[in-house]
Amino acid sequence: MKRRKRMGKTPRKLQTLLLLLFGIGALVSTNSAQSGQQRVFAKSPPGGLKCRTIRPVLNSVKPIVFLTFVRETSIQNEQKAKDYLVFRLTNNACVPIIIDMSGASPDLGDASLYYNLTNSRTGEILGDSKSCHVCSSNQLGPGRGITFAVPKDVISRDRDLSIEFEFTREVTLGNFPSWTQHNVFFSLGNLPESVKLGG
Q1: Cα separation of 140 and 167, whole Å?
Q2: Beta strand pairing call for 159-167 and 125-128
Q3: pLDDT at 75
Q4: Is 90 exceeded by the pLDDT of residue 146?
Q5: Which of 10, 53, 90, 197 lies 20 to 30 angstroms, CA to CA, from 37?
Q6: CA pair distance 32, 133, nearest whole angstrom
Q7: How confident is the model at residue 35 (pLDDT cuts 50, 70, 90)?
Q8: Hey, CA dihedral for 184, 168, 134, 91, is it positive or negative?
Q9: Where are the domains of the chain?
Q10: Which of 162, 115, 110 is nearest to 140 (CA)?
């Protein structure tokens, strides 16, 4: 029976070369697999901090806070009728939100909210409600809504209506120099065609 030839040992230089080539190949393969992906700077909070996972919204097919058009209304003011559009702000979050508001006539909704009107294309502020002189910051609970009115004569379809709000968990404590502020928008170009606007 013939004896098989034993293979000689791979020279050290060849071993080094093979290891180098293998390492380069693995690096190229890893970079190719990760191309186009976002960089992850931290997979977990620093210092052992932990987040409690909660469901962020009640209705998963709607925004966390949103505005909807409700109706047109008119009130008599100094011998002249003034037209308004009534909107509803809904909190779809699982935590309360905070909104600045003041009292309103029952015909004009639940409260007066403080809004901005901006150019839909440029974002330029074109108008707003009166400043909050006598008002309060009130909570709107999860799943709750509040109605408010905007004069019809300041509305046009090339504008966006926005309301500022905060989540209760984001309220600044003490004199910390940074804070979070949110805005919820409604595109007035999406008002029903039955709503006739001047201009």
Answers
A1: 10
A2: unpaired
A3: 86
A4: yes
A5: 53
A6: 59
A7: very low
A8: positive
A9: 65-190
A10: 110
pTM: 0.70
Rounded to whole angstroms, how far apart are CA atoms 109 and 172? 29
> Which among 82, 84, 87 is positioned nearest to 99, based on CA atoms?
87
User: The tokens of 93 are what?
Assistant: 């979050």
Determine how many CB atoms are found less than 10 A away from the CB of residue 121. Answer: 9
Q: What is the token pair recorded at 196?
A: 């006739």
Q: Which residues contact 135 (CB under 8 A, 6 or more apart)?
A: 100, 101, 102, 112, 114
Q: Report CA-CA distances (Å) from 126 to 20, 72, 154.
A: 64, 22, 9
Which of 1, 168, 171, 150 has the alpha carbon at shortest distance from 85?
150
Tell me if 184 sits within 8 A of 89, measured CB to CB: yes
| Closest alpha carbon to 184 in 118, 122, 121, 127 | 118
d(CA 123, CA 45) in angstroms, rounded, equals 35
DSSP 8-state code for residue 157: T
Taking only Cα atoms into account, the Rg of the chain, rounded to an integer number of angstroms, comes to: 30
What SS3 state is found at 69? strand
Cβ count near 89 (within 10 Å): 26
127's tokens: 């108008």
Contacts of 111 (CB under 8 A, 6+ apart): 101, 102, 103, 104, 138, 146, 147, 148
CATH T-level topology, domain 65-190: Immunoglobulin-like (2.60.40)
